[in-house]
Amino acid sequence: MTRAWLRPTVALFVSAVFFVPLYLVLTNVIKQGDLIAKEPASLPLPPTLANIHAVLTRPDGLFWVSLTNSIVVTVLSILVLTVLSAMLGHYLARSGKRWTKVLTLVLLAGLMIPPQVILIPITDVLRVTHLMATLQGLILFNVGYYVPFGVFVFTGFIRGVPVELEEAALLDGASRMQVFWRVVFPLLRPATASVLIFLGVWIWNDFIDPLIILGPSQGTTITTGIYRSIGQYQADLGSVFALMFLATLPVLIFYLALQKQFVKGLTGGATKG
Amino acid sequence: MGEGGLTHLAAVASPPAPPKTRRIPASGRRRKPILPRVWHFASFGAPGVLVYLCFVMAPILISFGYSLTNYNPFNPPVKFVGFDNYRLLFTDEQFLTALKVTTVLTLIVVIVPNVLGLGVALLLDRKGRLYNALRSVFFTPVILSSVVVSIVWSRLLDDRGPLDSLLRALGIEHPPGWLSDPDIALYSVASIVSWQMLGFCVVVYLAGLQGVPSELLEAAEIDGAGPLRRFRAVTWPLLAPSLTINTVVLLISAFKTYDYVKVITNGGPGSGATATIAFNVLQTGFDSNHVGYASAMAVLMLVVVAVVTTVVLNFLRRREVDL
Lengths: 273, 323
Known about the structure:
Distance between the termini of chain B: 20 Å
Oligomer: heterodimer
Shape of chain B: globular
Helix content of chain B: over 70%
Number of strands of chain A: 0
């Protein structure tokens, strides 16, 4: 190849253009507040940690409260989702009756239901059960809404686990639950990883559901916290950028740590939709 | 290797399961169930199904029920109005605008990331550290919250933002009002959504490209096919499953577009230049409290999503089989 430099050059250029908005976040996080509005694209010189410090020490504790809420909602949602969808996936993969096909279709439909269709009635359902504006309500909604995704990832994998393995364990006197959790579930690690990663990122980043279910004043998650702080602190852009950065940091670390798994899960999991 | 490539392709198109998979449903039917079925369902199936029914299926039915009434929590009594809400929708200027906005947005968001994603994937389809790093650059927006993406882009496209400063420096005195001009704002929002979704398409196409057997490409080269011909005759047909995934995922997420509209333009500028149906549903239901009418909109939206997705999915799947 005589033009060996061409591809890397074009690739670098295209990526650089694509990267501009991300550069804007990163520089403005460590840029002095008054410079952000004046010269948003300039290099952050001299760099400062004042924005991050301001967010972490806000008197109303917005960051810490939102962070706690987001962690509680995300962790509990994905734990319950993993357990419920792995077991439901097992039922669908192992029970060969005709009605499981119907059930599978009903669940499949759930993958394309826009949240707007159910959000209005869900607030009434939650109000009647006194779960409106509570973290439990949001968690239950998340579980119901994302269970189809979990089920489809798990069902595919469970079909790949030989039934003979389960029968052998049952003959050895294990209960059905023991067989599932000790023999089958450990074999589903790639599926579990995709489910945890995907649902974790989606639920962490979710905006509309916490906005509506937690209500206007009843506490914020990290995304609704950012949304509110742009309204309230229009002038303090440094804090908004720092808040956005801190909100993304956990997902970014999660992603970098599990990068391989993530992309595999993406191509594997996405196809089931 | 060719075999390996095709297996990988199959893995992308269907659940990643070892070849044994096929046998199990058959043997499962022949075999006596390991345990009573009722017990199996009650313990394994029921909890998941129950939450799904309570929090997804029941609300859909309730939504349909609401859509046949004039329900407004602040304006009782509730009256049954039949299909009046649905009839009203088709003469409602605001809804028809939202329908148009959603259609335009969906078309752009399905086409642009697909086309650019394929281009970038072809560009980055090489081994090496540089290409790995650049893949991460494209994938990062996918894991960002749409709220974060919306705020960053609002700043970037602001009337006094960096983009306009740059354009002014280049001698363009009056750059277009990216977010304030009703004729342009929708395209700006669609571009922002496309920017975030691009990385997803890149990754899916890259996975598809790994499944294209190099012998096939070499054979085509020996037969005298140029790069374009090789792409059209070998690579593109083998990317069919990737196209299916990308199109369906983009289609579904474009229909639901709410976050960007809410944060970037709040439906504006002007009278709903960027207000999607998804945005209007919540606006009408929660801000104006016309729950009955908003529910009709939501139900109609669900039907449209279901029909369009099914039609597109069938069309693309048939294309895969035709290979």
